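FORM 7B - TANDEM STRUCTURE REPORT

SECTION 1: FIRST PROTEIN
SEQUENCE AND TOKENS:
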Amino acid sequence: MALLSTLQRLTSARPPLVDVVFAALWLILCQLAVLYAWRDPGSFFFDSEKAFKPLYSAIRESEADEFIQKALKTSATSQHPDLQHERHPSSPYLDSYNASKICAGIPTKRREKEQFLPRTIASLVDTLSPEERKSLHIVILITEQSPITNPAFGQSWLSNMADEVLLYSPVPKYLSLDTYRHIDENKPTETTERNEHVQLDYATLMEACQKQGADYFLLVEDDIIASRDWLSRLNSALRLLEALPNPSDWLYLRLFYTELYLGWNGEEWHIYIPMILLVYAMVAGIILLGRAMRGRLTKQTPYSTTSIIRFNVWFIAFTVLFFMAGRVTVLPKSEGIREMNNYGCCAQGLAFPAHHLDMLEDKLRAPPHHAAGDSFIEIVADEMNLKRWAMEPSVFQHVGVRGSSEKGGPRKKLWNYGFET
């Protein structure tokens, strides 16, 4: 009744008062949008200079650098988590009953500018307890035909942080066969085109992880930085998926996405317009209901044309501001998991349940290889009618300066803006 009474007073007030009240409210909301929507790429108030500034990721990179220096001499593998024991001498370990066994596969190739692999691996393991580290098996695939050209090849930090390193060429005698392994079958050649090469790399890592008997295969690109609590949050998200009525109808869980594609997408205006009309009808109905109820007590004059025009003008103004603020800002998702069958990008971090790996590996190896690796996975999900989920918020950040490891590759703004808060 209080709301009805307020709306009734405003609509029956003199025009200047109505306009002043709504103008003040609109300006206040606009200022709030300026304050909070600057990191939403779908917002009119988006500030790219601030939004792309690394904050939390810069802290995590610094922490990773410190861990790498220690890993030059001390083991941090799942079999010998000595460095974890030094960092967590008395911390409570992960409940092994609740922890899923995860195998992470990371394909890597020399990049033209900065090499991100060391920090990628370090950020995955630097905060883990010994028991957490034992639940995570990390496989690195050096994708060059001549692995010696890759800066990570033969480095002590690599053999001290990764559990397994795969090569497409024979392992030199001076390297440990406990860590390095030669892949001699179903491998790409020097003439293999990029899309086919990437798909075969993914399939190779899936095959290696299946041999570990892991519950989940985690595909990770070599240019990410992970949050401190990424593994515990991943395990929590996987438990939520396992508790679904049909826990087998999804292909992967996304650990990274960019808000760039989650705005007001043009192909969804058929959804937005009915929502706008519904809100319009509800607001108009409340005003009319309030007037009708009050009309029983007092004599009311009919609405003037000016009042009707004023109502429509302000409704349009507030609707425009709503969309200007951005979808991620005005319709935020709660923490946990969210279904993301569309607009997810890219393959920086995808967790697949083990029961889908045989099918997916076969499809990745089979021609034609007409799509990029991450796009092909989306095609498979559509063909198999499998859902795709994402962690909210993201636990990975894409720190790669270039979207392609090829010289002159296109610059891509694949960034999770919420990760930095």
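SECTION 2: SECOND PROTEIN
SEQUENCE AND TOKENS:
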Amino acid sequence: MNGYFRTAILLAGLTGLFLAVGYMIGGQGGMMIALLIGLGTNLFAYWNSDKVVLRMYNARQVDERSAPQFYGMIRDLAARAGLPMPKVYIIENPQPNAFATGRNPENAAVAATTGLLNQLTPEEVAGVMAHELAHVKNRDTLIMTITATLAGALSMLANFGLFFGGGDNRNNPLGAVGTILMVILAPMAAMLVQMAISRSREYEADRIGAEICGNPTWLANALEGIQRAAGRTVNVQAENNPATAHMFIINPLHARSVDSLFSTHPRTEERIRLLRAMAAGGGASRGSGGWSADAGARSVWTGAATVPSSAPPSAPGRRGSVPSTGPGGGPGSGGTPRGPWA
């Protein structure tokens, strides 16, 4: 509950900052305009943010026929989490990563890159996707959408104040100097709050994701592999849309920072340490109580995959035996092997 309380406080602070900027620009009228802008942008984001981000990354929706193993895994994990079946997407991108989006569990979507599916073991992929389903379960996707929208709207409002607020506004005791400071500091403060919320939600999703998949070590190993591979692989789409970086399980940007005020993600080493401590303390069901790749016919793994040449050089040696599917969608259907999922 501490994580939820902290998130509520941060969201309240961001909303208050938004209204304060509106008041400094135009008094009570400006505050009401700011409130309407905030409500309007959040309403748009509530209904459309998932579609926008999936389109941004050219995500391809898959089903049980086009990606039987991956889709079956998500269905098993969603059932373990007590969630409705989300929409499932695959992103053609060599960097291993994943994210979740959607306004609520009934309208959620999870997406994984081909880099993630081709370079990790089935158990590690399960750990990653369980983490993303934990975000859905916690409604973090909605929280982060609201946070990002408010932060963006605040920047817009502050710039509006620079051009139209003027230096004679009686509500701004510092006049023109105050307006300039507001334009610089308000978006920065909003960004800090947004990043703080993102970091706190990642820790919680790690814990609940480990409980969903049943083995914290799977997620810990996955984070270790993703962090190493992501540092060698440029995610062009994320670099072009840095505002979406907080959505991913590992920061996809090359200009990653340490666990500081300006980081969208906690330190990966700290996340791994907490997950391994959870595993050592028996904090999640393991063994027969966890998700299993052999749990049902829809999750059977056979054959061997060929890792694409775009993957990091170390990937083939690290991740050996996962099934391959050809153009027909089943193992051994001919053509160039594309991994177990595509």
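SECTION 3: OBSERVATIONS ON SECOND PROTEIN
Confidence is low (pLDDT under 50) at residues 295-339.
Residues 8 and 120 are 35 Å apart (CA to CA).

SECTION 4: SIGNATURE
Preparer initials: ____
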